[in-house]
């Protein structure tokens, strides 16, 4: 190696035949995600970059990348479409970024089950799966562009969670193939409960190369907006719909005013000062839905059939974390929290306690067999101290906070170390090269 040859030149040469990206503009784009939703993360992560990006197309090429990274002891960070919000795929220590988007083959689809590569985009998958009457059980608001592997690695809930709960719930992920970063990389297959070793681990302990996922029956999903005079009436309606076992639904999303004012494309359907529910319900259940709307004094302002909804922008793109995206496009000082309220009593308490400081956005999901309200509430960021006070008040009053202002795996939602994920990392990544700095358990172990 000459004095002008860098280790990255050497690595690129050793990976000849695999697509490699070194252009600074592309490298910057592929080093980042939507971390800027958090002013805390923006300050911490804005300058983080990888040294080069590789785009393997096959598992064999992934093995080659893994072997090369271990040989040179350089960090490796896996990414899908980069639609996460917590810096999950941002390399803290530089190194190689492994972009999985070329691994986009659907291996097979059969009733209730499918096998895919990690780079398969969710909307593209559903288009094919619906040909036989099935679809993904759940998906984030970034559904059009997000990859299945990226969602498993960094996501947790989304549309469909009102029926199927969280990704971590038993049965929502059937099997994985992962490549290790040992001296001699190997492929390990995980099935059943073993998938939790890698599920929502931010790519810290295995490169996913194949997934087996359960599917849901594909209903004709009508899209509906209901307006309400009072926020708590809207929230109570959301709980009642979520509890209505006879109404098949995919999404129950409730927005306190002024959040609806941020949805520019929907303004003609969102009366000034009203609170709203954005819903996805089976067309076959519109009659009982309308009766429920009347019971709670709501007004249906928008009602698209499944066919009509398929041609335009889905209302999914105004819910979950896209709500925050739309709000920030109007006021960049807005940020958010992620909260498990568990009960409407807690929702009402927080609604009155914080008043105008905090605008509540609810997404209903199944948790422990019950439909509960979860929140992605919005507020204007002032100081980190005030942010922590808001979090502390929520936690002291019985809500669970999945903190979106940290890139540390354990400090976000779980708040505890997962011994199974740590043990698996020790096995498959003995040098700690995979997405270093994201797993607190590993950092504590190596610093002790």
From TrEMBL:
Q: Which organism is it from?
A: Hydrococcus rivularis NIES-593
Which superkingdom, per the lineage?
Bacteria
Question: Domain named FAD-binding PCMH-type: which ranges?
Answer: 45-218
Q: Name one GO molecular function term.
A: D-lactate dehydrogenase (NAD+) activity
Record-linked PANTHER family: D-2-HYDROXYGLUTARATE DEHYDROGENASE, D-LACTATE DEHYDROGENASE
Query: Tell me, which GO biological process terms does this entry list?
Result: lactate catabolic process
Task: Supply the name of the protein.
Answer: FAD-linked oxidase
Keywords per UniProt: FAD, Flavoprotein
């Amino acid at each position: 190696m000459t004095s002008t040859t860098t280790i990255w030149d050497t690595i690129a040469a050793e990976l000849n035949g695999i697509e490699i990206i070194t252009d600074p503009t592309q490298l910057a784009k592929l080093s980042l995600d939507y971390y800027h939703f958090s002013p805390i993360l923006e300050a911490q992560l804005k300058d983080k970059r990888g040294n080069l990006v590789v785009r393997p197309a096959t598992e064999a090429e992934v093995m080659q990348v893994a072997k090369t990274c271990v040989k040179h002891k350089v960090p490796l960070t896996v990414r899908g479409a980069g639609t996460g919000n917590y810096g999950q795929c941002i390399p803290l220590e530089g190194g190689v970024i492994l972009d999985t988007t070329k691994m986009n083959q659907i291996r097979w689809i059969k009733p209730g089950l499918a096998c895919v590569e990690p780079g398969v985009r969710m909307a593209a998958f559903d288009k094919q799966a619906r040909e036989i009457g099935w679809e993904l059980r759940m998906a984030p608001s970034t559904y059009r562009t997000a990859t299945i592997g990226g969602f498993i690695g960094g996501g947790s809930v989304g549309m469909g969670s009102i029926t199927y709960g969280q990704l971590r719930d038993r049965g929502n992920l059937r099997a994985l193939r992962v490549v290790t970063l040992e001296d001699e990389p190997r492929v390990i297959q995980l099935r059943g409960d073993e998938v939790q070793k890698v599920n929502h681990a931010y790519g810290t302990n295995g490169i996913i190369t194949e997934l087996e996922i359960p599917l849901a029956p594909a209903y004709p999903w009508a899209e509906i907006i209901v307006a309400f005079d009072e926020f708590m009436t809207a929230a109570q309606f959301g709980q009642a719909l979520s509890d209505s076992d006879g109404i098949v639904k995919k999404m129950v999303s409730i927005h306190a005013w002024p959040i609806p004012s941020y949805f520019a494309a929907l303004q003609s359907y969102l009366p000034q000062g009203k609170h709203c529910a954005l819903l996805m319900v089976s067309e076959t259940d519109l009659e009982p839905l309308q009766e429920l709307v009347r019971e709670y004094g709501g007004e249906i302002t928008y009602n698209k059939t499944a066919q009509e909804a398929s041609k335009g922008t889905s209302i999914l793109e105004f819910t979950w974390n896209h709500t925050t995206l739309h709000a920030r496009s109007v006021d960049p000082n807005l940020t958010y929290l992620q909260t498990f309220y568990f009960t409407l009593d807690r929702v009402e308490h927080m609604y009155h306690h914080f008043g105008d400081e905090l605008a509540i956005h609810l997404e209903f999901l199944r948790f422990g067999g019950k439909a509960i309200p979860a929140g992605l509430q919005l507020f204007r960021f002032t100081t980190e101290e005030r942010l922590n006070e808001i979090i502390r008040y929520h936690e002291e009053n019985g809500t669970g906070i999945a903190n979106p202002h940290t890139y540390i795996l354990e400090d976000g939602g779980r708040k505890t170390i997962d011994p199974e994920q740590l043990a698996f990392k020790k096995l498959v990544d003995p040098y700690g090269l995979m997405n270093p700095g994201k797993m607190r358990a590993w950092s504590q172990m190596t610093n002790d």
